[in-house]
Structures are given as structure tokens and as C-alpha cells.
Request: fold
Amino acid sequence: AGSAMWDRTALRILSCSQRLYGQHGLDTTVEQIADAAGVTADEVRSRFPTDSALLTSALSLASRGAGERVYEARPDRGWEALRSVVYGIEALNSVPGFFLFCVDMLIGGIEKNHPAHDWATLRFEFIDGFARHAVATGIEDGEMDPSIDADTVVRQMMGVFPAGLVSRVLKDDQAPVTIARELLELIEAKYRVTPAAD
Reply:
């Protein structure tokens, strides 16, 4: 096999990792992933030497896919930018159980010794910056009430992730997407500016 980290074999390993992490969480073993990917455990280890490297690579690849889905919609300002959070959750949610696994990693990653700590920190920083940019451009474009508080929007958007845990109780795979949409609708109902009629 080649040495490239993101060649076909590596991508197959990570795709299987995402599915198995979504099903079994951190109890997923390298042997299970290797078997699902049709390679040996040694082949997995040659590319991802530690459990943390495999875990964070799988999370990062999934996040990158979600980011590409967001970018394709060109939602770079205001409400469209905030709506892209839903697009990202839909992309992550396309792997059964994987969005909830990401939620677990985000929540657990607050602890510095958690294997996904660095990944979670980057995700929180991205969401924070993304929400603040959306609010600033929304006010600038006249589509958001200037009284909108960026800190409140960030907290509400972060609430999408722990709220996604409700889907475990509801046993509804689409609950994370539904919750994200409903949270965004609440924010829009409060802060959307209706253009004055000519």
C-alpha cells in the first residue's frame, strides 16, 4: 500500500470507522474496523498508529464532508450562514449513529485527557467564529435586528449538539436535524428583520 494518508485504503478504513464508531462508540476495536475495511489490523496501525489518531481522523474526515456540504450551498452571510449548520448536521447524520457519536466526542472532549479533546476544541472554536460572522454580516446586511446578541446565538447553536441526545430517547435518527431546524426557527422568529414595503 502507498504511504499517502488519504489514499483509497485509508479512506475505506475511515469510512468503516465512522460507521462502527456510530454503532459501538469508543468500544470499537481496530480488529473490527480492519475486518470491515477488508485489511489487516497491522495495515490500520501502519496508517493510524494510535486509537486517538484513528478516532480524530475519522471525526475530521466527517467534519470535512459536512463543511463541503455547507460550502456548496454558498451560505457565507447572515441567516443563510446560520442555516448551513443544519446542512452540516444533515451531512454528519447520513452515517447512522455518527452524529450522536460526534456529540459524545464534543461533550467528552471538554476534558483535556479525552482522546478527542483537540478535535472538540477546534470544532467549538469554529462554531463560535462562524456564528459571530453570521450575526455580524446579518446586521450589516439589514436582515438581523441590531439588538441580536452574538453570545446568545452561539450558546443556542451549541445547544444543537447536546439537544441531539434527545434522539436516543426518541429513537428517531432525524431528531438531530429536526432539533437544529427548530432552534434556528426560534432564533429567526426573534431577530429576523422584515424589509419595509416600498
Q: What stands out?
A: The mean pLDDT is 82. The first helix runs from residue 8 to 24. The chain has eleven helices and no strands.
